[in-house]
Amino acid sequence: MRYLRYGGLLAVLIFSGIGASAQDRPPAPSSNELTHGSATKPVGDSVIWIDPALDAVIDAKSRLTLVKGGFGFSEGILWVKKDKQSFLLISDMPANVIYKLTPGGALSVWLDHSGYTGHDIWRVGFIQTNGKSRDDPAFEEFAMIGSNGLALDNQGRVIIATWAGRSIDRIESTGKRTVLADRWDGKRFGGTNDLVVAKDGTIYFTDGYGGLRKRAKDPRKEIDFAGVYMLRQGKVTVAIKDIATPNGLAFSPDGKILYANTGRNKSIRAYDVQADGILTNSRMFFDMSADKAGGIADGMKVDARGNLWESGPKGIWIISPQGKLLGKIQTPELVANLDFGGPGGKTLYVAARTGIYEIQTKVTGAGK
Predict the structure, then answer these.
(1) What is the reported pTM?
(2) Which long-range contacts (CB under 8 A, 24 or more apart) does 196-201 make?
(3) Looking at CB atoms within 10 Å, which of 283, 315, 340, 364 has the fewest?
(4) Is 111 within a domain?
């Protein structure tokens, strides 16, 4: 992974491929690192059948397929539906870029400096590795300085959890970048992670310490807890503080339940959403912590039937609205995030470290 150089200048915004000069942009994965799904073989036997109800949401014969490879650490995957051409947006955190990926396989920079926009990059973003042993010639480590979770607001604008940027930003239709929130009670966030937008426009997002080089021990930490926040009518309030390491968020199809997972603690909690957006009745919804395999509770989505598709150990866990495990999708890399999209909305796209994968389903995502 080649690190970005800022040269002491503030980051330059690229929207729809217009903005920074070539030398300011991180290198996109080269052509020999990229493969399109139509030219690849399925990734093994993908679906693990646990409950007969799984048949209603995915075919047991469905196969996970590599769409694109060669990313540093893919996150925040988002399907953007457009009349002329729909596409995927993908946060590549070490590259500090949001890529645009078309159904035909064309990859371009959609937003440069998507997360941290300062010049002192050696002080931000915790150090991550590619999971290989340090004595492996292919071992790499890098700072996680780019954007994380992505979402669309009710007007179709992209909302970004900037992670090392420590804010929630919105990209206007003109390409202008607007900071919606970067503080609570006058104190800066530590690393905005994931976000969801309610039907009334309220934004819920998670924040921890990942945007800081030394995480919870970083001297620049200003908030002494990790939490889920609510941004409603321009005001930021703490929604919940009962999760030590909050990560992914998702709404039930009717918007009455907010699910929040616990990252490394590998579980999901559920909350009732009141008319004023306040979250009540905190309860354990599903616990994956008994599985000691690699992978955390990271990104998650809900389908139109109310099932949760949760990143977890060994892949994606499919869980019914009643909290029953229906099945799993095995992935060759640890899953970071996922989203429904594609023609008809029945393709599940998976951001898993260096690769973007897809698998066909029988359901669409909630609200898709």
Answers:
(1) 0.89
(2) 196/151, 196/249, 196/250, 196/251, 196/258, 197/151, 197/152, 197/153, 197/154, 197/159, 198/251, 198/255, 198/273, 198/277, 199/154, 199/255, 200/277, 201/153, 201/154
(3) 283
(4) yes
**Domain containing residue 250: CATH number:** 2.120.10.30
Helix count (H) and strand count (E) of the chain?
Answer: 0, 29
- Residue 237 in any domain: the answer is yes
pLDDT over 80 at 24, yes or no: no
pLDDT at 23 over 80: no
pLDDT tens sequence across 193-204: 999 999 999 999
Q: How many domains does the chain have?
A: 1
CA angle (204, 303, 81) in 5-degree steps:
75
For residue 49, tell me if it sits in a domain: yes
pLDDT at residue 22 greater than cutoff 50? no
How is residue 344 written in tokens?
């008809």
pLDDT digits (tens, 9 = 90+) for 72-108: 999 999 999 998 899 999 999 999 999 999 999 999 9
Q: Give pLDDT, residue 44.
A: 59
Nearest to 29 by CA among 6, 66, 2, 4: 2
Between CA 17 and CA 102 the distance in angstroms is 14
Pick from 98, 112, 78, 130: nearest CA to 6: 112
Per-residue pLDDT reduced to its tens digit, 190-249: 999 999 999 999 999 999 999 999 999 999 999 999 999 999 999 999 999 999 999 999
10 pLDDT above the threshold of 60: no
54 token code pair: 């799984």
| CA distances, 98 to each of 28, 109, 147, 313 (Å) | 11, 6, 7, 26
Q: Is residue 88 part of a domain?
A: yes
SS3 2: coil
Domain containing residue 280: 35-360
Strand positions, DSSP E, 141-266: 141-143, 150-152, 158-161, 168-171, 177-181, 183-184, 187-188, 192-197, 203-207, 227-232, 235-240, 249-251, 257-261
Q: How many Cβ atoms from other residues are within 10 Å of residue 323's Cβ? A: 14
